Amino acid sequence: MSMIYEGRKFSIEVARRRYPDGTEHEIEIVHHRPVVVMVPIDRDGRVMMIRQYRAVIERETYEVPAGGVEAEEHAEDAVRRECEEEIGLVPQRMAKLGAWYSSPGFCDELMIFFRVWELQEPRPDSPHKPDEDERITPHPIAIEEARAMVKRGEIVDLKTAFALTLI
How many CB atoms lie within 10 A of CB 34? Predict the structure, then answer.
């Protein structure tokens, strides 16, 4: 086992694994902490999407809010924190929709999806703000319009396209 990179968001390891047939193979693993993916529904039944610049692909994207689960943090607490950081509202109700690996061929990132609603303003003294490198603008969009945006290629984020199939 050899950790070849340790960064702020993920690490990369080269390891040997025994397969079910008994053979051993060297594999590369991207380790990423679990993330929560939220589908916030406002009181008018619209999904609260975010628009943000993604430097990796050098473009703005429409996405549902999402973010990492911190060490020792419960997923539900991460939902409340991330929702507040990304759309400026705190969900009073949530329902877990399921959990899936983003790309298990090379990455152990588990994405935990939640529907959240009864969105309220945060406490005035709340410490939760967007990350320093995030430029996020909330956009309420009718669910059917968001699904149409996927079909037109305007939503290119796979977790968002998938999340819209869950509601």
Answer: 17
Distance (Å, rounded) from C-alpha 129 to C-alpha 115? Answer: 21
What is the maximum alpha-carbon separation in the chain? 58
Q: Which burial class, exposed, middle or buried, applies to 47 when counting CB atoms under 10 A from its CB (0-12, 13-18, 19+)?
A: buried
Distance from C-alpha of 57 to C-alpha of 14, rounded to nearest angstrom: 26
- Check whether residue 109 and residue 98 sit in a common domain: yes
Mean of the per-residue pLDDT values for the chain? Answer: 93
Range of the domain at 53: 33-163
pLDDT in tens, 54-87: 999 999 999 999 999 999 999 999 999 999 999 9
Element (H, E) at 160: helix 158-163
- The backbone torsions φ and ψ at residue 84, rounded to the nearest 5 degrees and listed phi first, read -65, -45
Rounded-to-integer distance, Cα 146 and Cα 9, Å: 28
What pTM was estimated for this model as a whole? 0.91
Question: Contact at 8 Å (CB) between 109 and 101?
Answer: yes
Q: What would the two tokens of residue 118 be?
A: 């009864």
Distance of alpha carbon 100 from its chain centroid, rounded? Answer: 11
Residues 11 and 41 in one domain: no
